[in-house]
Amino acid sequence: MLLNQFLLLAAVLFCIGVYGVLARKNGMLVLMSVELILNAVNINLVAFGTFTDDVGGAVFALFTIAVAAAEVGIGLAIVLLMYRNRRSIDLSEADLLKG
Amino acid sequence: MTGLVLAEFTTTEKWVVNSFWGVIAVAMVYAALRVVTTKNVVHAALWLVVVLAGVAVQFLFLGAEFVAVTQILVYIGAVIVLFLFGVMLTRASMGDDEGVGDEKRAMAAVVGILLLAVMAFALVDSFDDIEIITDGPQSVTTVSDSIFSQYIVPFEAVSVLLLAALIGAIVVARQD
Questions:
Q1: Domain check: are B164 and B96 in the same one?
Q2: Helix, strand, coil: what percent of chain A each, to 5?
Q3: N or C end of chain B: smaller count of CB under 10 Å?
Q4: Within this chain, do residues B24 and B77 fall inside the same structural domain, yes or no?
Q5: Are residues B98 and B72 in the same domain?
Q6: Domain check: are B146 and B122 in the same one?
Q7: CB distance from B134 to chain A under 8 Å?
Q8: pLDDT, tens only, A19-44
């Protein structure tokens, strides 16, 4: 198998995730798009780890999974708080810090 | 059988493995597109399951068994359930998500396509025909030995981070 087929698949997933982050208003859907991006990065880490025959790639993919779990926990807590305060999770309405 | 030893395969077997890979990849890209385009939030979460399962299969293709199992446990087992709970608790979002306007959506698509073009060019330019040789699956022993010797400091840092995230989530979401 080519190294590039994994890297290109990860690049496609990453770009779909970036599109999702930019084109979505719902806070929940933005968090899902962020998960797409993190998973694309994980494919890259594991692919390069296997390519260089080093276990470091897999280990860092595991660290990324742990960080992503923490991220989604905090992210959902923030979205819930936003819902409780404004009865909406529309991110375009969250402009309190806008100058 | 995972962690395929492709070097020992005949051409036909390689072709079968590669077409299997292709089917999974196409399914993943389609599901990812549905995640970012579908209007129903619950449907988006369920399409995300397809993408995450596909990523786990990619890890198996690369011989990283332990990462694949962790992917299924943590993502499909925990993160998706968390998302579905989130959707349930913010009832307002159950209906349709209109998303941003057409103009902004077009700009987002342009950003995504340009980014993909740059990355694809860089990847094809640098890793043109390099083959991955997987010599069997990575044993869990190797991964755990590595975590608890060479990578012990980042491992402890991740532990503290998870604890901080746990406390932070409780503090942020607490009613008072």
A1: no
A2: 80, 5, 15
A3: C
A4: yes
A5: yes
A6: no
A7: yes
A8: 999 998 888 899 999 999 999 999 99
B173 and B157 share one domain:
yes
Query: Distance (Å) from the C-alpha of residue A72 to the closest C-alpha of chain B?
Result: 7
Distance between A10 CA and the closest CA of chain B, angstroms = 9
B58-72: average pLDDT: 93
- Among B59, B86, B162, whose Cβ lies nearest the Cβ of A79? B86
Q: Compute the mean pLDDT over every residue in chain A, rounded to the nearest whole number.
A: 91
What chain A residue is nearest to B142 in terms of C-alpha separation?
A55
Looking at beta carbons, which residues of chain A come within 8 Å of B70?
A: 62, 65
A25:B70 CB<8 A: no
pLDDT-based confidence at residue A86 (cuts at 50, 70, 90): confident
ipTM: 0.92
Interval B80-138: pLDDT, tens: 999 998 888 887 555 566 667 788 889 999 999 999 999 999 999 998 888 887 777 88
User: What domains does chain A contain, in order, with CATH numbers?
Assistant: 3-90 (1.10.287.3510)
Under an 8 A CB cutoff, do A22 and B107 touch?
yes
**CA distance linking residue A22 with residue B109, whole number of Å:** 9
User: Is pLDDT of A67 > 70?
Assistant: yes
Full DSSP string of B47-89? HHHHHHHHHHHHHHHTT-HHHHHHIIIIIIIIIHHHHHHHHHH
CATH number of the CATH domain containing B53 = 1.20.120.1200
Beta bridge partner(s), residue B40: B96
Calpha distance B22→B24 (Å, rounded):
5
DSSP state of A90: B
